[in-house]
């Protein structure tokens, strides 16, 4: 075997390049990595294991005004080593929508929210595909109310329309025709964050949306990263052959 052949085999074995799905959000996204709650982000990571890397940049308590300046750094990080971002999933607005008379620090006016969200999505669009997810229904009186959160859901949908990007309407997914609000609260543990049932529901809804919008992202259409174990064994014999005593 020539020296060049050895290098080619070694490169196949040790290459760390992995394309990314980037998650941008607040505590609903951060807590999505909690395995004790069957976190939706953890389930997404398992779903795409060895095919795409899931990078969770959910920041508990953050609003769009605080996330927007961080976007360039998040995006650059995901493209290190010649990797590329195949999809950015953005779900923000739960903290922006808090009532300013109760929590003026996190609250963001709905028009400023739209402007911030447009900037965030615009930066992500320069690197790859984007899925905008509306802030889910939230009811944590008096800080968060359904009436206020609905305004930010509508604003997110308007941003998606203006930018011509796919949007996942969590309200429609959870409520259907919206006639029975009581049926959704068993998906939460505090009126804001998903419990095990909510995480499972959101994960299933998210995967369906991804598959319908981008069939090429179905795991059956993605190549597995790194050789199978039996292939590695054969290559190791070629790269490091046993020597007789």
UniProtKB/TrEMBL annotation:
Pfam families recorded: Lipase_GDSL_2
Give all residue intervals belonging to the SGNH hydrolase-type esterase domain: 23-200
Xref: CDD domains: Isoamyl_acetate_hydrolase_like
Q: Which residues cross the membrane?
A: none
- Top-rank taxon: Eukaryota
PANTHER family xref list: ISOAMYL ACETATE-HYDROLYZING ESTERASE 1, ISOAMYL ACETATE-HYDROLYZING ESTERASE 1 HOMOLOG
Q: What is this protein called?
A: SGNH hydrolase-type esterase domain-containing protein
Tell me which species this is from: Boothiomyces macroporosus
């Amino acid at each position: 075997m020539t020296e060049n052949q050895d290098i080619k085999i070694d490169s196949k074995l040790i290459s760390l390049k992995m394309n990314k799905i980037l998650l941008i959000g607040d505590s609903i996204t951060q807590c999505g990595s909690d395995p004790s709650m069957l976190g939706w982000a953890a389930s997404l990571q398992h779903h795409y294991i060895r095919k795409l890397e899931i990078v969770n940049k959910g920041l508990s308590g953050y609003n769009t005004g605080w996330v927007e300046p961080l976007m360039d750094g998040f995006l650059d990080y995901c493209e290190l080593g010649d990797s590329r971002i195949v999809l950015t999933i953005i779900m923000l607005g739960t903290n922006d929508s808090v009532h300013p008379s109760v929590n003026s620090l996190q609250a963001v006016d709905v028009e400023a929210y739209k402007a911030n969200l447009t900037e965030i999505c615009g930066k992500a669009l320069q690197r790859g595909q984007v899925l905008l997810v509306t802030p889910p229904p939230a009811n944590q009186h008096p800080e968060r109310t359904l009436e206020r959160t609905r305004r930010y859901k509508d604003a997110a949908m308007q941003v998606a329309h203006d930018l011509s990007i796919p949007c996942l309407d969590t309200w429609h997914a959870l409520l259907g025709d919206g006639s029975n609000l009581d049926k959704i609260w068993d998906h939460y543990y505090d009126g804001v964050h998903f419990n095990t049932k909510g995480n499972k529901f959101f994960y299933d809804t998210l995967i369906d949306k991804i598959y319908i919008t981008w069939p090429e992202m179905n795991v059956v259409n993605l190549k597995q990263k790194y050789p199978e174990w039996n292939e590695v064994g054969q290559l190791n014999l070629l790269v490091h052959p046993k020597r007789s005593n």
